[in-house]
Amino acid sequence: MPPMLQFLLSRLVKAVLVLGVVVILNFLLIHAAPGDPATVMAGEAGAADQAFVDQLRTQFGLDQPLYVQLGTYVGHIVQGDLGFSFRQQRPVADLLLERLPATVVLTLSAFVLALVGGVALGLLAALNVGKWADSAITVVALLSYATPIYWVGLMLVLVFSVNLGWLPAFGYETIGAGYSGVEKLADIGSHMFLPVVTLGLFYMAVYTRMMRASALEVASMDFVKTARAKGQTEWNIVTRHVLRNAILPILTVAGIQAGQLIGGSILVESVFAWPGLGRLTFDAVLQRDYQVLLGVFFVTSVLVIAFNILTDLLYVLIDPRVEITT
Amino acid sequence: MTRDFLLAFARNKGAVIGLAIVAVIILMAVFADVLYPQDPWDMVGLPFAPPMTDGMLMGSDMLGRDIAAGIVHGARVSLLIGLTSTLAAVFIGVLIGAIAGYYGGWLGDLLMRFTELFQTIPNFVLVVVIVAIFTPSLTSIVTAIALVSWAPLARLVRGEVLSLRSREFVQAAVTCGQSNGTIIVKQILPNCLSPIIVSASLMVATAILLESSLSFLGLGDPNAMSWGFMVGSARTVLRQAWWMSFFPGVAILVTVLGLNLIGEGLNDAFNPRLRRKRTA
């Protein structure tokens, strides 16, 4: 079997395992929730007489033993049925699919920004260790690392939208503007700018701090001395020897933190009314729409796994010594 | 050792600043009732009063509540939730990490797979789901935060225990006939205390950020005034009244910064060799 196929297969097995546990966790959460699911559903549907509750109980198999119910639940999910939102009168899977693209665009852009920015700034700080550039980068990273992400969003809105009027404060595009082509793209881009910066800033701080430490460590290693002794230019030493080796631990951490990045998008999206999963979560929290919340948990877990595979592939791209295996 | 440690900590400018910040926040929480005796939920002045007007240092909110009073009282919730959830998470993390590291084998493998799983799933989403389903209260918030925070610590403790368990003093304890439990608690754990303390101090900071994010989304304890709630409830009037969301946010930022600085200071003081290498 070619190694790439093997890698993807092993990842698939792992993904199925993780998702299996997420599904079981979701199932347990529904059943551990205070109140009987049938009464909750009846309440959500807007009717609560005993006959209707009993009907729901048989309809959803709530009178069956727990393991049978788990089986039914898993069966539904395998078929792509994530439940029904009575609040929105639509299947949860439809709601999630509709919101997924916006979240993917937001988190991916923020991820790239954080990674590129963090690696560049961290390297810059390490190359100027002890000088003012290093101190400035370190202080800014320390501050960004301690700031609540939603508050950064609000303050950016205050400065760039309310006071300066440069960028739109919320939404995905100007409603009713009727742009098309390049204008539409520019419009969406200007709406994306603040959310992406907000979400990316925190992780950029994390990666900057790590990259600085990592680059300092690599720079003191023997192979860097050898490269210097060979008469390599400083630029070559930095890009080919230091950068390439120092970036590896950052990628590992970036993969592990993918879940937090996606969690952060919930906050950012609710600040900027970005029409993604986060906004959906915020509304579901307000309406106590559990089916949607559990669906979001499932879908974001899928996203995290996708991010993990992505970072693993990046790893292989940067370090050819690493082979794609489990 | 302790004197060297204290000296190393005190020589770290950032750590001392962090300690001072956290000390002020703790004093604020302890003396909240003395500083602002009235209930922070009470209307005490005109609504929408800007800072330094109407006798209110940081202005008032939409309902005429004093922002400064809210910040002082909010310190209690942040610290309480930060500390208790960290204690719970440290307990789970150390327990699982120590068992996995000491016994190893299939049990260790299983526990580590379990730990990895908890690191993979989206933390914040799980916290939101748990708190929303079990209705927001101090207990549900602390439980949810502890549940998503223990995993990195468990991995760390496992690594430490794994490297310590083959050392001579542990083998000596085994030869003396000490039980496994005694060896873990009395021989191994005291020797990996420093990384646990460092992570715990950073975990308090993360827990405070998590709590504030929850209250921002409206999932805080409805009976407790908290910083995240203040930012969240004021966001709709951001255009008219910046101070309502600005000051509580600064309070969170400063507290988390202080805790992070302490954590780093502890780390540097516990690992003097690492520190020297880094500055060299």
Automatic annotation (TrEMBL), chain B:
Residue span(s) of domain ABC transmembrane type-1: 75-263
CDD domains in alphabetical order: TM_PBP2
Pfam family, one: BPD_transp_1
An annotated GO cellular component: plasma membrane
Lineage: superkingdom: Bacteria
PROSITE patterns in UniProt: ABC_TM1
Subcellular location: Cell membrane
Record bears the keyword Transport: yes
Membrane topology: Multi-pass membrane protein
GO biological process: peptide transport; protein transport; transmembrane transport
Keyword vocabulary terms for this entry: Cell membrane, Membrane, Peptide transport, Protein transport, Transmembrane, Transmembrane helix, Transport
PANTHER family named in the record: D,D-DIPEPTIDE TRANSPORT SYSTEM PERMEASE PROTEIN DDPC-RELATED, OLIGOPEPTIDE TRANSPORT SYSTEM PERMEASE PROTEIN APPC
Protein name: ABC transporter permease
Organism of derivation: Roseospira marina
Lineage: Bacteria, Pseudomonadati, Pseudomonadota, Alphaproteobacteria, Rhodospirillales
